[in-house]
User: Fold these one by one.
Assistant:
Number 1:
Amino acid sequence: MLHNSQGLPVTTDSPEAIAAIDQFTHQMLSYGNNCQVITSGLAADPTSVLVNTHVAALHLFAETATAATEAQPYLHTARQHLDTATERERLYVEAIAAWADNDFDRALACHTLLAERYPRDLLAAQIGQYHHFNLGNAEELLTLVETILPANSENHFVYGMLAFGLEQCHRLAEAEAAGRRAVDLNRQDPWAHHAVAHVMETQQRLGEGITWMESLADTWESCGTFRTHNWWHVALYYLAQGNTDQALHLYDREIWGRATKDYSQCVINAISLLIRLELRGVDVGDRWQELGNAVCDRLHDHVSPLLDTQYIYALTRAGYDALATDMLHSIVTYSQQAHPSIRAIWAEVTLPVAEAMRAEARGDWSTSVEKFAIAQSRLHQLGGSHAQRGVYHQVYRHALAKLSQTELKTAV
Ligand SMILES: [Fe+2]
């Protein structure tokens, strides 16, 4: 039995496995570009419960249709060695296994217990926040980090996590203070930069937001794909200022230009920005084609409502109408079969929004308005942040305006 850098016991005799766990934890919390480092722990201790479960989690974070299948062998190995594992390790295995099963109620019950009993386990709290984020549970997302805060009062990562939770609960002044505290403790904290960016966007402090983010952007070079999300926020400021040229420039230079083209979050950053640009009347040229190509083999992913409802828009705008129809059928089927913890969200929110987004992309304003109206009061259940869901409100308003123009012409 050894201990990790957070002082928590880990069932292994291998210092190399501990080093891999520590480096992986740091990479995850700092949104680094070397999360794969955890695989070196497999070589050091192939039977480690924690290393195997971290590798399973890494597969799941890829947000692909095959992720759960790819995670299974590692979960299987971890389960074979539970008899010597600590309680924390057993809870963590159960949490990640539940995630692989899309049983988010069970996963979150484990993450709540982990936060209460092992508040120094920041990675477990981060994963719990990720699930709450994807389920639109803003208050629970905040509660989880508040639970671990007293045990980590000097840790900048925790203040970044706190800042984002506060922002999602509209406690903007406190969110900004927590985010700035994180950055004061350590400037290399892209999640804290991001939380403050959300505050400034909500308050429409556009110039200040640009200065804040661009003054910290040098630190994002050591980030993985999260760099593109932070640049997406910068582009939103320029867009709100009416500087569509700069927003499009950032799309080409950073948001899609340096995207990992097969990573879900990179793809929806790009889709969401192209939608917003087009709604402002910008000619985006043939850029939809590349995005359509990026999602044409993701028809059956159903990893999250936020992803599917934007993928289908890109497919349609790229001219892949038959594929968009197939995807819609697949969402219908999935919404009937999804795990009970998420089935209602898929059937009652994701499906009508997917129909609305597809209709908007085809210029069918009437259907878009009709379908959005069904889900309007529950859009938060699509998951994601207020900023990410802003695109649905913009599309809905656009469809309403187009529909009323059409009705006016018909009446005249
Ligand atoms: Fe964001």
Number 2:
Amino acid sequence: MFPPRTVRLKDGRNATIRLATPDDAEGGMALTRAVTAERVFVMNEGLVLTPEEVRADLSSPETDEKLVLVAETDGEVVGQTGVHRGKYSKNRHTAELWIVVRKDWRGVGLGEALLRADMEWTRSVGIEKLKLGVFASNVNAIHLYRKVGFAEEGRLKDELTIEGKRVDDIQMALWLA
Ligand SMILES: CC(C)(COP(=O)(O)OP(=O)(O)OC[C@H]1O[C@@H](n2cnc3c(N)ncnc32)[C@H](O)[C@@H]1OP(=O)(O)O)[C@@H](O)C(=O)NCCC(=O)NCCS
């Protein structure tokens, strides 16, 4: 079971990183809505799941197949991350990661703490490769992924149009084995 932890951030604030629960559904959806409204970081343009579907998903935040963590402070969800293992025998040694941090909590180390928690769990369940997709324009995210050991494995040229400009879609991966 993923052990919760409180992290002290570079600006002196604290956040608790723990397994998500169904009661995080509303806070997590508010965070997703805020990040999608920024329009430049993630593909989704709104919520994909209903509140009931999110609550159901968060009723089992940790299985052999997936992990969902939140970063919480004073009862508010300020960060979220998830890891989903490949479904088939051919890709069960891999997992896909997603991560979001609320705008007013970025740049102070919370993303790194969440990523390191994902890496710890992924290793503990025997997954060998953690991977993600990131827009080439998302320089802070790419900087952070490289910092914790991810490397570029592929790139779809001009795959996206963001704010009127063509942007590459980068695939990055971290080998844990
Ligand atoms: C990507 C993201 C999760 C990173 O989380 P974070 O809490 O900001 O990450 P950290 O603070 O741990 O690290 C960010 C790095 O970028 C640097 N940075 C510089 N300016 C920054 C800014 N305005 N915002 C965020 N990071 C900044 C930080 O200093 C840090 O590098 P350092 O540790 O070498 O100093 C977060 O920015 C985010 O949620 N962005 C919007 C959603 C998104 O892009 N998700 C990922 C899609 S692939």
